[in-house]
Amino acid sequence: METVTDRISRYLLRRIRRRAVLDLYESAAVVELLTSRFVDGSEDSGTAWSITRAAMALLTGDPAKDRAAVARALQRARPIAPSDETEMYDFSSQAEHPVIRELQDICDGEPSTAGASDEAGLADRERRLATIRLLTLLREHLPRPNAVQVAVALLVARAVGNSVDDVQALVKVLCRSSPFLSISVPVSQFERRFGMQLEEGLIIPSRCVLSDVMKGPGISGRYNEKWRSRPHRKIATLSGQEARKANELSLRRYIADVLLAADRPLVIADEAPGTALPLVARTPDLALAGQPIDRELIAELLLVCLAIAPKRSLKVMEGMKLDPTGLGLDDLALAVRPGRHVAEVIRLLGELAERNRGSVKEEDGEESWTEGLSSTGRSGAAGKGKAGALAGEVIEPEPLEVTEAEGQGTGKRLKPRPLRRPLRVEKLAGYGEARQWALDLKEDLDLWREGQLNWPEMSTKLLLSGPPGTGKTTFARALCNTLQVPLVATSVATWLEPGYLGDVLKCITATFAAASGKAPCILFIDELDNIGSRGRNTGKHYDDYWTSLINRLLELLDGAAKTEGVIVVGATNLPGNIDPALLRSGRLEKHVVIPPPDTDAMVGILVHHLGDDLAAILKSAPAAPSPRNAEKLADTLPNPIPTTPVTGSIAEQRSCPAEWCSWVIAKPLASAPSKVL
């Protein structure tokens, strides 16, 4: 009697084969061997394939010549698998194929077109027979099954067989309007590969578009835009690994929202071995539990993919003492390749499994997101912005300057004077409200450290906007030194470098996690306008990509409890391009515009950057103009440049450097050609 595992395996393998056949037919249509049409004008009702006139002229009736002609034509569209690799992939005879059987039934009957002439009926019959011959020749070029797809099918079938005694129990759950299922298979990369096969219609008889319960990507980790233009089914998914990282209350709310909406199934896929899911994720209508990769599964896989008899492969595995513990799906893709001898495949699998068991790594083969965050001084290592790599840089504050007078009588060893003056908000010029906000925050932070002020009572989120070069990044570094807390610096461009939606969302989340791990600290997000706005919906399929990014950022910014100890400073050149929701209360509610510096601000900038060199520069300056000439010069200066004449000796001018710098700045403006002004 056929077991549940066998029935599900046969069904899933046929799904894989059917997809391969359709892909082959589409390749034949590209080179004009086949033409297609929807049966009832809709893709939901199926596709009917028929031979083209060009292909009919190509077929001669000689099997050898026709086979060679079809092979040459297909080479223009796709690689051709050797003929000796296709026998085991045909699970049923060609005559049993539904398309061929239907065509044969039609050909055996009379022409169905009422009133058609005998010649038209014969032509139609000849066309149908030619279609049968062409489809038969095309099926000889089916490629070998994908080892990973076959492995996922076998793992899913085992999980079903281990969890249900009757297929009808599974069907009963699946026939509900919005079933809730979980599947746990302790094999690395299972979550992502299972999600990809759901999208491609290799698990259920429909393409799927996956959405994440927690507003992220589907478990496949890719944005499946190509399915959205075709009929598909929507499925809500949740990664078991992500569920363990989530807040229990938030996860409960997300799952409840999906179940109450009752508009799509919910599937939780988990690959973590021996670790229990949160309680809310352990309440599905049906829980499927699978097993890791073992020798029996490898033998079945080699039978389907390489036509190697199970007895032979099991004997080789026993002789080579293969221990498959730790093998992942990607390992199968590397080892199980067409044309390889069974001993070579088993040897590679053994080496990969041993390497996996000896390696200390996280699930899904990715290193820690925060592991790449380097803690540096003034110049941290730039982030790479890709999965598993650096998502920003951490800049430690420079020690504050300690003078001898401040240290006298304390009995403490004085800190060495830094080689350069630390940049501090107190010394910045031209920042207006942002400077005062920073000074107030410094006082509030001291009170918070002493327990006299709660974090929600503080203003800890700021958006700086202004033209390029106005010092928005400089302000963040100065704030780091003033508050004496670390600075986690990143940008939206760094987040977007991975490209895939799943990797981008992980990058955003990991940046906030790294900042929370260093609290109290400053999180500086540059180029914030690059994340877009949900209000600019273009109706395109990629709108969901940007909406997902904004939703994740809103979730991470929303509420002081989630960002306690983290001061968030955003910077942008185009504040009008930012989604309004990011600027609401509790998020980046404080917005300060930094204009280009005026003369007073430029004076302060020069005084700060010249530092101890200011006196030497003033000594080398030309003699000050006489009062009479200074007044004439003042009349030529445009407003609002100060017109106070600078008089007196060099010694007097050194005592008032700001006035001298004002005159130095204003003089070139006054003497410049009018077209420059």
Automatic annotation (TrEMBL):
<dbReference type="InterPro" id="IPR003959">
    <property type="entry name" value="ATPase_AAA_core"/>
</dbReference>
<dbReference type="InterPro" id="IPR003960">
    <property type="entry name" value="ATPase_AAA_CS"/>
</dbReference>
<keyword id="KW-0547">Nucleotide-binding</keyword>
<dbReference type="GO" id="GO:0005524">
    <property type="term" value="F:ATP binding"/>
</dbReference>
<dbReference type="InterPro" id="IPR003593">
    <property type="entry name" value="AAA+_ATPase"/>
</dbReference>
<dbReference type="Pfam" id="PF00004">
    <property type="entry name" value="AAA"/>
</dbReference>
<dbReference type="GO" id="GO:0016887">
    <property type="term" value="F:ATP hydrolysis activity"/>
</dbReference>
<dbReference type="InterPro" id="IPR027417">
    <property type="entry name" value="P-loop_NTPase"/>
</dbReference>
<dbReference type="GO" id="GO:0030163">
    <property type="term" value="P:protein catabolic process"/>
</dbReference>
<comment type="similarity">
    <text>Belongs to the AAA ATPase family.</text>
</comment>
<protein>
    <recommendedName>
        <fullName>AAA+ ATPase domain-containing protein</fullName>
    </recommendedName>
</protein>
<keyword id="KW-0067">ATP-binding</keyword>
<dbReference type="GO" id="GO:0006508">
    <property type="term" value="P:proteolysis"/>
</dbReference>
<feature type="region of interest" description="Disordered">
    <location>
        <begin position="357"/>
        <end position="385"/>
    </location>
</feature>
<dbReference type="GO" id="GO:0005886">
    <property type="term" value="C:plasma membrane"/>
</dbReference>
<dbReference type="GO" id="GO:0004176">
    <property type="term" value="F:ATP-dependent peptidase activity"/>
</dbReference>
<feature type="domain" description="AAA+ ATPase">
    <location>
        <begin position="458"/>
        <end position="598"/>
    </location>
</feature>
